[in-house]
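Reply to dn_fold:

You asked what the input looked like. This is it:
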Amino acid sequence: MATSKLVRTILDPNKNWFAALHKKTISDRLSKYGLRYDDLCDPMECLDIKEALNRLPREIVDARYQRLLRAMDLSMKHEYLPKDLLAQQTPFRSYLSDMLALVKRERAEREAFGALPLQQRTIP
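and this is what came back:
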C-alpha cells in the first residue's frame, strides 16, 4: 500500500515538479502537431483499443483520423501548426479512456466467467 502511494506521489504532476515538467513537455509537443494524447494509442497493438475505437461515434473516430493525417503532413513538411491554431489545442482532453475502461471491464468479466474473449470467438 505504501509503495503504490509513493508511486502515485512521484507520478502526480501536482506534487512532483519533474512530473509537471514532463507533462508540459508532452503537451507542447502534441500541441505543435495538433494531436491529443489518446491519438498515440495504436489499435494494432492492443485489441482493447481497437474495440474501444469501434464503439466510439463515427465523428470522434473521423476527427482522430484527421488529426493523425494533419500531424503526419506537418511532420513531413518539417512545420508546426500556426500560432492561432496552436492556442486552441487541448492535448490532454480524453475521448478514448472511458470507452477503453469499459472494454477492459467487460473483458475481465468475460475472463472471470470463463468465456472466450470477443476476438477469439468462433461461429459454429
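The two ends are 47 Å apart (CA to CA).
Hope that clears it up.
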